[in-house]
Design a protein that fits this description.
Strand order of the largest sheet: 4-3-5-12-6
Structural class: alpha/beta
Distance between the termini: 55 Å
Number of strands: 12
Helix content: 40-55%
Number of helices: 11
Largest sheet: 5 strands, mixed
């Protein structure tokens, strides 16, 4: 370690060129140094290594045994350093083998990832995608530690410190089974409140949401009869009962078993955002994935 502290990069580069050229003048030309500067470097190297390193010979300077020992390790170390400081290579999705991990709810799996999947497989066939359950309280830590690459979360309550980009503005619609006898037309506020409602409660067991806040502001209250943790189960419940739910509109694309009605109460929508950590912000592969998803929606 003491010898390493005495060295600087210029000395190592000079030694590498000297071991290649066996000539101070030619080494100076390659390094764009003056000949005296190369000689000074060689003197410092001899002092540090306690060895002459290069000795005069009939065909230029000849390396000592110690110099020969240094040749290959020195060349490998300099090449590794060159690779480390070289500009990052561009990302080619056609040949990439990345594994991406994305945290999402089942609603954003359906609204964002499902439409994205065919194009993603076609553009980057060698990559893999792991979709993990969104845990809002763990997003920041997971992103910081590299456990996830992206997360889909509402913009207004996204964890601070993460980069974000809004993908779309979402609104709520009233949903029930096709042919629902009480959804043939837009219900009145009183009729809406009289229906049996289902709510998704990601944290488990909640019976109140943004719809209830909007109703309370108007002096109204609905009946929430069922609380479930996932949208997938909710959709089955709606298709097989007369229960209804307020759902994100994008979740309803292509669902023949369900029908959509405009609700009689104005429920604020939300911005769906893509979140990621600063550590991966400039990574070419990560940039490509983010741009692909943004362009899709």
């Amino acid at each position: 370690m003491n010898k390493l502290r005495q060295l600087d990069l210029n000395l190592l580069v000079t030694l590498d060129v000297l071991l290649s050229e066996h000539n101070v003048t030619r080494a100076a030309q390659r390094l764009n140094f003056s000949q005296p500067s190369v000689s000074v470097h060689l003197a410092k190297l001899r002092e540090i290594f306690g060895d002459p390193l290069l000795l005069p010979g009939p065909r230029g300077m000849q390396p000592t045994a110690r110099a020969e020992e240094l040749r290959e390790p020195l060349r490998e170390a300099l090449q590794a350093l060159e690779r480390a400081v070289a500009p990052g290579e561009g990302f080619d999705p056609a040949t990439a083998d990345n594994t991406w991990r994305i945290a999402a709810t089942d609603a954003t799996e359906t609204a964002v990832l499902l439409p994205a999947l065919p194009g993603l497989r076609a553009a980057a066939p060698g990559t893999r995608l792991a979709v993990v359950e969104l845990a809002p309280t763990r997003i920041a830590r997971q992103a910081e530690q590299g456990e996830i690459d992206l997360a889909f979360h509402t913009s207004h309550d996204a964890p601070p410190g993460l980069r974000q980009r809004v993908l779309f503005r979402e609104r709520y619609v009233l949903v029930g089974r096709s042919g629902h006898p009480k959804l043939r037309r837009k219900p009145t506020p009183a009729q809406f409140c009289a229906l049996e409602h289902v709510i998704v409660s990601p944290d488990g067991g909640g019976f109140r949401g943004v719809t209830d806040d909007a109703l309370a502001a108007a002096g109204l209250q609905r009946r929430v009869a069922l609380s479930v943790p996932h949208f997938l189960f909710m959709m089955s419940v709606l298709a097989n009962t007369d229960m209804v739910a307020m759902l994100p509109s994008r979740l309803m694309r292509g669902s023949a078993a369900l029908q959509v009605v405009e609700p009689p109460v104005d429920v604020p929508g939300y911005d769906m955002a893509m979140l990621w950590h600063e550590r991966s912000h400039r990574d070419p592969a990560h940039q490509w994935l983010r741009d692909y998803l943004v362009n899709l929606v």
